[in-house]
Amino acid sequence: MRRFNWQIWAGFLLTFGGFLSFPFFFVRFPATRDVPWVNFLLAAVALVLLVIGLKRAFQPGRSKLAKVIASLLATLSIAAVGLFLYSFFIMAKQLPASRGAPQVGQKAPDFTLKDTSEKPVALSELLSTPVNGSKPKGVLLVFYRGYW
Length: 148
Description:
single chain, 148 residues, two-stranded antiparallel sheet
């Protein structure tokens, strides 16, 4: 009696689980949204399982149906990984630029935000306050994306 080729099925399910988990779950968290390292890890484990499953399917004595099913599952899994990589790395770069975003070198509009001690600080105040006896020439703005 031949054993069930669970590796090919586990690789297939893990591939699609990793593919679908990004837009429905991991996109919510900054640590996995910017670089989907969990999905890359899931895809790598899935590909290892697929290779092991393909080797088992093509061992001597296996039926032709087992070889066809294993090949089909491996092809669909590789296509899903390729689509994920294409959508994340290629299609993401084709998104249009924001029209309202400030450009490099452009003067920032005046704004007021709270500092780390919850004291409001205005950009105009920073530009007008003397530092070491002279008026500052500029302010470095750093935009953090995420939560803390």
